[in-house]
Amino acid sequence: MNRAVNGLPKGVLHLAENDQKFSLVRYAPSVETQYFVQHYWIVRWDLRGQEPYKQTVIAHPNVNLVVEENGTRIYGVGRSTSVRIVKDHGWVVGIKFKPGGFYPFLGAPVSHLTDSTATIEEVFGIESGPLESFILSAPDDQSMVSRIEAFLAERLPEKDPNVSLVHELVMTFRDDRRVIRVEDAVRLTGMNKRTMQRLFDRYVGVSPKSVIKRYRIHEAAMRIDQGEVADWLDLSTELGYYDHSHFIRDFKSVVGMSPEEYRQK
């Protein structure tokens, strides 16, 4: 049985409002698939009798395989926010691969999927319809997760040591507030800058700079949504920025508006 994983869904903008529109449950992968998979997830919503809702997301540096009725696809990493219109009621189930974890399945640079999608047939050679029916007809969430994991477990590639390396680098970018620029990452890891950039193009799909920036903006947006921000200078300092103007530029470049405009909206 896959264990449920709790935690706030960083990257979903206007989280407090979104929390009333949908539910998200995440499940840890089994030992068999955990080398490649970060977690499995299920989103449910019920907006019957309500207006459709526009959900905006800042993508994590992960490829996702999303199973939904008549819409199953593999999503690469987006370089900016993405918007999904949620209406009526339904559910989707997905696999969130570790950063770098999808490359062994794809066998080509993951940057080919950046800002794009692929079908199940293009990558795994099977039609999506029967897979959708099998997974989405499961009687409960745990069964859906078990079915989608069984699908993946039957198709596991050889372990690529670069997957572990890339995942470790990305976690460093996420957790170490000293990493604001690629040069900071180079200094901390000792890896050549060009080598790091090539590695991320092949395994992640976006640049190290993009990954570093989006994690800081994820944190900032969540803090704003929770009403924890009193001063932009204090927030930028806590996130590791040397000056708050740099933080504001980064926020605006990803979200499309300044932090103050986001808070007011």
Order of helices and strands: EHEEEEEEEHEHHHHHHHHHH
Give the number of domains. Answer: 2
The number of E-state strands comes to: 9
Averaged pLDDT: 90
Strands ordered across the widest β-sheet: 1-2-3-8-5-6-9
Helix-residue proportion = 40-55%
> What structural class is derived from the secondary structure elements?
alpha+beta
Q: Main β-sheet: number of strands, strand sense, barrel status?
A: 7 strands, antiparallel
Radius of gyration: 19 Å
Cα-to-Cα separation, first versus last residue: 41 Å
Shape: globular
Protein name: Transcriptional regulator
Keywords: DNA-binding, Transcription, Transcription regulation
Key attributes of the depicted protein:
seven-stranded antiparallel beta sheet; 18% strand; Arc Repressor Mutant, subunit A; two-stranded antiparallel ribbon; alpha+beta; Transcriptional regulator; DNA-binding; 12 helices; 265 residues
Structural write-up:
The protein is an alpha+beta fold. It folds into two domains: 4-153, no CATH class; 161-264, Arc Repressor Mutant, subunit A. 42% of the residues lie in helices and 18% in strands. A seven-stranded antiparallel β-sheet has the order 1-2-3-8-5-6-9. Strands 4-7 form a two-stranded antiparallel sheet. Helix 9 (208-225) packs across helix 11 and helix 10 (232-238) crosses helix 11 (244-255). This is Transcriptional regulator.
Fold topology:
Elements lengths: L3 E2 L9 H4 L3 E6 L9 E10 L6 E6 L5 E4 L5 E3 L5 E6 L2 E9 L5 H4 L10 E2 L1 H5 L3 H9 L4 H13 L7 H15 L6 H8 L3 H11 L4 H18 L6 H7 L5 H12 L3 H6 L1
Antiparallel strand pairs: 1-2, 2-3, 3-8, 4-7, 5-6, 5-8, 6-9
Helix pairs in contact: 9-11, 10-11
